[in-house]
Design a protein that fits this description.
The chain is an alpha+beta fold and 201 residues long. Helices cover 28% and strands 35% of the residues. The protein has a domain of 138 residues: Sandwich (Immunoglobulin-like), CATH 2.60.40.
Amino acid sequence: MNKKKYFILVLVFAFAGCGIVKEITNLSRLQFRLANIESIKIGSVTLTNKTSIRDLSSLDVLKLSASFIRGNIPLEFVLNVEVKNPNAEKNASSKSDFKISSFPWRLLINGREAITGNISSPVNIPGNKGISYIPVGVKFNLVKFIKDKGYEGLIDLALNLARQKSSPTQLELFAKPVITTLLGNINYPGELKIISLNYTN
């Protein structure tokens, strides 16, 4: 190989290396936080604007009691994960946007693991110093999750989450994002612990 070709190869690898380092650096700046809970429902009963058992109608109580006897009260909600991308695009050739192609997660409620899952479709995170959201769909059988609490304990847990919909402090989400960039997929090296009180990166 002549000197000219060798020099060109060195330059290619050097610039590729710089690109990889920049992508990883930008990726490490992404910040995650639990933003809020939406569409919370227990069984077939929607808990929007309900904060105590007294807010449940007689029909609601009848439905939930029947579900409890059958041993199946599904708790269902959407947990929105807020993603802040502080990386700005300086020009058309300087991209700092990402796509979260996979987001395997496990959810803890009051320190106890309730369910695991993944997102149903990729989420774009634009590089404009803005905020994006990852909707995490959650659904599991509340009776199996806390067998020892009894009927009122199950309902109270769901209502507590409904009361904390704008600040779900009872929840911890552990996730290991897979980010698609111009250089391919990049896996986070470990799980992120995502909570509502402050950002994680």
